[in-house]
Fold each of these.
Amino acid sequence: MSGDIFANIREDLQSVHKKIKGQLTIKAGHVGSYAHIEFSPMDNFIRPAVVISVAHFYNCMSAKVISLGAIVQFIFMASQVHRRIPEVTINSKSESDPRDGTQFPVLVGDYLYGKFFTTLCSYDMNHYLKPLANIIAKINEGGILRNNSLHSENSQINKEILKLEEAELMAGSAFLAGDLAGAPEYEKGLLFDYGMDLGMAYGMCRNGASGGEINKYLDSALKALEQLPNRPDKKMLTELTSLFRTTDGIVRKVV
């Protein structure tokens, strides 16, 4: 994690990842033996951090909040496993790594998607199945568009891919955390907008976009935050957003 930005929610983040870790060992061994599930420190924490920070903003902390943080991370992990599956695999079974093939990663990705659903059921949050399933559909729609537009220089298509594959999950994380914490409808809309803009900025950081484009989305995210009530934990959301602020077009190495 970057610096002390997550210091106030570190214990909650550890609880999220303890919950995830407990689901990664199956009868055949650790799922990391069958698919690549290594991610950057920021990718490991940012989506659960959004969930927990929003919940803290509304003074809500519960097992359901921790579980929602794990759920959005399960969805991210599954989408990334499927995204990394190659079009062509090594022919020689003796030389191939199962993580670099197709069959095992597909099964691991599906397993992780299954864990998002079972966690919803275990914590009586089935009413979030529809919005989360819709997010998964959008992520996969983005993947289809990306594979159908390889090497495209059309900025609008590339932004739509980024929105579908990256920003929708961040927006849903913020919105559902607000809903779980009892936020008013208007504020849930602001949280969705905040998450969408943060997700666009974060995705652009990952893709090496220009600082000007990244800052434009960060400015929009901060405007959404400004319209929320002033509470102590609002600072956490502001600092999380400012992590990706660029200076003189230089993207900070946090992703």
Note: The first strand starts at residue 25 and ends at 26.
Amino acid sequence: MGKIPEILKNNDHYLKSCILYEVAMKKPIFDSYQSFCNVVGQDVMEYQDFEFWYGRFCEGELDFDYDRSMDSAEPKTLMDMSTKLMRKITDDLNPVERRYLRSMNQDLKKYIDSFPTVFENISLIAVENQLFWKLNENEYECKTEGDGCTFSKPKCLKIEKSDEDCYVCKKSEKITETYEKSYMKKGLEYLTPLFKIPNLQTNHLRFVSTIQSPELDAILPVPFYAKSGYIQEFNFDNLVQHLSILKAGFLEEFTIKYDPPFGIELLTKIFETEQFKQAQGVKFHCYLDINVEGLIHFSHLKQFFCAVNAIEPEEILRIRDIISTFKNLGKVRIQFDRNESPIRQFAEVLDEEIPEGPVESFTHRYQIPESNRTLEMTIRKISTHCYWIDIKV
């Protein structure tokens, strides 16, 4: 169609004829609307009106004088799409694209916020004069430089959806900028908005802090959704605080690291959390100053790792008897230190015959009473002073 005279732009029948022409050309509706606007003008007819007549003509309804007031149906809007269709649209968007879409109107914002934004992993490490974080494969770093700081970030952030239904950031070239502010202040400008994303989730969270920083103590939302977590703190109360932020039940396993050995008094603070009670697996990368009887606290877990200061050979039977009562157990590793090689002494207590000469490990199998399950216990020398007890059912 060529350009039409100005007088015809107010001719209702002529405009509908133009729409009918687009239908006859069998072009997609949006392409047809663009072509229509190019010919008759951008402001002659709203898309909603064009869509109405285009739809009628496609169905063979060619009455140009049809009274639309007889149609009581309200005009359809974007939010009238089915939940299934809206979910398909939002599922295909990465977190950056979702942020733009949710800013379009309040209805979209509420709808998009009702679905989680999932990262494969989020890592945050704070040490003296340096703040480092990682979103999947993209690394960021703020560190002190003179009276200000430098900030390194990916030059181009590429976010793609993985097969595991979460968002994976692809590696890219990094750029470094200099700012006249503290490394912590600059880092929080990026981190604070990240942790305010509604329904933010990660498959793995790593939180490490070796400094005293009130700003970081309160940075995670309450609750924070992580399937697994690694927490390392120099302050034990902060460690328990951050563990308690992770959503109990959603959190399947967690690891904690705390340098000084600690006993049952501090351990009880962890044992009393819902996170510990509902977890499936726990690792303590620290020495626990507890006796063998304290292992009963791990009875609900499928797997756990802990290190203790020392285990006497005669205690190995009690360890076996306690752990063999754990109904959900899959595997256990207990690390301990000794100043001499005790492998043969442990074997003697368990009535296991081992070859003469140096022995680095042996395996003991135990039929659990009133059960068809067998507990397998392997004691292994790792180094001069370090030994492992590996147990599986």
Note: The chain has a mean pLDDT of 83.
